[in-house]
């Protein structure tokens, strides 16, 4: 089944292939903020696509979607657009997908190899780190400040007065635990996650550990990892990945999991410097 894609930025400029998070989400929640990538290093064309089973990339419900499905799709997208050794920018789950793809491409000649990776707050590299993230995100969701914001919304009458605005605010509070300051979770582009796809992909990874099983050691590419200090995904996950891959690690202070909203002024300059060095 076809995948939905979109292009932004100057046509003919060097391309960045941008992978959204999830799994089971869609690309446009990264907009408009991540369009700033198009202005870096002399101008870049940005290629996004909705990963299979999310957004406008439909999937056959009878066929499971695994991490290998997503790796195969990523290779097909690179081939379809005839991208010659592209730079892959992966956010959250997209960062983990970029690592999985680069490791598979290193040993499978049928997969086109990327030239470099930019990983923005990548998803945990092991099941152990993922469990740490799940505990921390649950703790934040029950924090006094987020409870207070939910109570304020319930008492506002917005649900009856403006149902669309109520849905928007309810969405923002559902993701507020990703932010260093829950009050920064505003004016966000809403998104939906396919629970079926999310569950299938994570189950397909099993008790994964990309450090221990040698996956990360196979990646021999220039790489930049950017991670918010207050991200509920443990910084130790990105530190371990950077050490094994020989990647540059930039830690953004006073920032959670959403640096393109929380700290764009600290996110894009190191990416631009990395692209210039390439």
Set down the secondary structure blueprint.
Elements: E1 5-8, E2 15-19, E3 45-49, H1 67-80, E4 87-91, H2 93-105, E5 116-120, H3 127-141, H4 144-155, H5 158-161, H6 163-174, H7 195-205, E6 223-228, H8 235-245, E7 248-252, H9 259-262, H10 264-277
Parallel strand pairs: 2-3, 2-4, 4-5, 5-6, 6-7
Antiparallel strand pairs: 1-3
Helix pairs in contact: 1-2, 4-6
Please tell me about this protein's structure.
It is a single chain. Helix content is 40%, strand content 13%. It folds into 2 domains: 5-132 and 193-277, 3-Layer(aba) Sandwich (Rossmann fold); 134-184, no CATH class. A 7-stranded mixed β-sheet has the order 1-3-2-4-5-6-7, sandwiched between helices. It has helices spanning 67-80, 93-105, 127-141, 144-155, 158-161, 163-174, 195-205, 235-245, 259-262, 264-277, and strands at 5-8, 15-19, 45-49, 87-91, 116-120, 223-228, 248-252. It contains 10 helices and 7 strands. Helix 1 packs across helix 2 (93-105). The radius of gyration is 18 Å and the shape is globular. The chain is α/β, with parallel strands linked by helices and 278 residues long. Strand 6, helix 8 (235-245) and strand 7 (248-252) form a beta-alpha-beta unit.
Named CATH topology of the largest domain: Rossmann fold
Note the gap between the termini.
35 Å
Q: Number of helix segments?
A: 10
- The structural domain count equals 2
Structural class: alpha/beta
Give helix and strand order, one letter per element, not per position: EEEHEHEHHHHHEHEHH
**How would the global form be characterised?**
globular
């Amino acid at each position: 089944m076809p995948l939905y894609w979109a292009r932004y930025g100057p046509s003919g400029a060097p391309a960045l292939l941008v992978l959204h998070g999830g799994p089971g989400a869609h690309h446009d929640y990264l907009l408009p903020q991540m369009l700033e990538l198009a202005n870096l290093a002399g101008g870049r064309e940005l290629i996004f696509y909705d990963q299979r089973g999310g957004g406008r990339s439909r999937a056959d419900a009878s066929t499971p979607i695994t991490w290998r499905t997503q790796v195969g799709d990523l290779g097909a997208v690179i081939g379809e657009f005839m991208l010659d050794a592209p730079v892959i920018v992966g956010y959250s789950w997209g960062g983990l997908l970029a690592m999985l793809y680069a490791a598979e491409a290193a040993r499978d000649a049928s997969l086109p190899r990327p030239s470099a990776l930019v990983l923005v707050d990548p998803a945990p590299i092991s099941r152990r780190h993922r469990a740490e993230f799940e505990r921390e995100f649950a703790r934040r969701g029950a924090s006094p400040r987020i409870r207070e914001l939910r109570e304020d919304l319930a008492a506002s009458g917005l649900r009856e007065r403006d149902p669309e605005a109520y849905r928007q605010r309810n969405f923002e509070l559902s993701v507020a635990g990703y932010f260093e300051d829950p009050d920064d979770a505003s004016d966000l582009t809403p998104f939906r996650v396919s629970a079926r796809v999310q569950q299938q992909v994570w189950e397909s990874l099993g008790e994964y550990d990309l450090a221990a099983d040698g996956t990360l050691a196979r990646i021999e590419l220039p790489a930049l990892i950017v991670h918010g200090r207050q991200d509920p995904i443990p910084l130790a996950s990105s530190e371990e990945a950077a050490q094994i891959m020989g990647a540059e690690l930039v830690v953004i202070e006073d920032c959670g999991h959403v640096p393109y909203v929380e700290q764009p002024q600290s996110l894009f300059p190191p990416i631009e410097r990395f692209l210039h060095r390439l």
